[in-house]
Amino acid sequence: MSLLLTTSPKHCANKGLNLKKLINKKLLYFLSTFFFSILSIVILIWFILHPSKPEFYLQNTDIYQLSLSSPHLLNSTIEATLLSKNPNTRVGIYYDKVRVYAAYKGQQITGDSELPSFYQGHEESNFLSTSLYGNGMPVYPLFGYEVSRDQTTGKLIVDLKLDGQLRWKVGMWVSGRYRFDVDCTAAIGTKQGDAPGPMSLVEGTQCSITV
Fold this sequence. Notes:
single chain, alpha+beta, Immunoglobulin-like, 2 domains, transmembrane, membrane
């Protein structure tokens, strides 16, 4: 008497389920390998190109107003122009949420001025001009004395500060956002008495930048 072997419906269902799991594992392995390869290529290109930080130079600074309305409140009007340069030959830079303000001895003396977002191509330069205003800015008690003391030396040292976010562009790939901070020191020539015109930049150097 022979024994007839038959496959039950439950056995077929288990076999189909195992096959489906195998296909899903292969698909997951393929996708993981594909994305890892793309990421490796991007990282390799990134390290080969090694993008340099942008450069900033202070071109012009004019102080039209810097006066105390009370011992602790300052009114100020400053105009500034900076040169921004992308030194990279193969990497572009997007700038977002860039703000500018002026400071004196570590204290902010104007409100923030926000610059429009812009893109800087390979080895491209842009002039960034802004007007800065301070109306009733609170200052420390000795502010007036220190300004007067610096005016007697013929130079008023003012810092122009920028901060914002940048993104690197390599081909069609664009990186995430990186915060950057720029610090520019301006030596401003002071006026004698009631001499007309603004106090203007005497000397300015290349600005420092951190990314």
